[in-house]
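Same chain as my last thread, 226 residues:
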Amino acid sequence: MTTYSESPGTHMIVLPGGGYAEHAPHEAEPVARWLGGIGIQASVFRYPLNVRHPAPLDALRAEIGRRRAEGAERIGLIGFSAGGHLAGLAALAPGTAPDETVQFAVLGYAITSMETETYRPARLILLGEDASPRLRRSTSLDSLVTPDSPPFFVWHTAEDPYVPPEHTYLLASALAASQVPHAVHVFAHGPHSLGLAQGAGEAAIWTTLANAWIREQASPRQAARR
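reply #2:
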């Protein structure tokens, strides 16, 4: 677990993707270093793999509580693919202790729905072959959004063959319906698992867009509103 840079009061936890079976290296430390470069304190959290829900969520909540006990006033999450799903669960799922709350989340090409049949391997790892409709619904981010949910920055590519943009559209629609502050960017071109997307054409601009949005969420003025 490596921490980068200093940003008083705000800490971001980086959750790499990998279908709940592995942690993609390019979505881990490089992302934390990028956040450090824009003045945001960040660390990588390697959540448990190949285990059933709620083990990854429980582990992440404990990590959030630990970071808050160390002095972080505002916690942001940034996750990719399956890591984005976990970030969304931590931000949205009920039953969160006060010291485990999340103030904002950034999701890249995230798995948001366990009710679709896309990227089935991750669902089978997390929920099992015989997951009930109720369990699948309760781990789908769009079903967990309420008017009290924290702000989201969500990005995807329309060409993603593994986690199609439908996942982002479902979450974005739920955020809009509940009037939750959010930014959504779907780029026309690009594969899955882009990470920082350097040299990936138009999708490379996501970090520029997220930079401004993250700074807004981390600002003292934004903190005073909540």
